[in-house]
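Appendix C reproduces, verbatim, an entry submitted by the partner laboratory led by Prof. M.T., so that reviewers can inspect both the input and the predicted structure.
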Amino acid sequence: MSASTSDFNQRCYALLQQIPVGKITTYKEIANALNTKAWRAVGSAMAKNAQLVTIPCHRVVRSNGDIGEYAAGSDKKIALLSTEGIEISNGKVVNLEKVIHRF
């Protein structure tokens, strides 16, 4: 991993740690906060996260509310979000606009 990729990932993780329990954000929101349109790179950073609970990448979903992927599996992501009070129905966040965290 290059130094610039590592730096980008660390900036993503720093933002993730600002998301309170009971809130979620999107790959696009993180990209916007980093002044980039590289939301796929944000997704890649989430996939490389080695500290799944400490750095809560389970709180990042797609812009349309789909829960997206998770290193420990989508069932685990849904379970984590549910324990934090995020309602999921048919693989999507219910009331996305009410629970989204914007930076």
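The two ends are 27 Å apart (CA to CA). Additional entries are available on request from the coordinating office.
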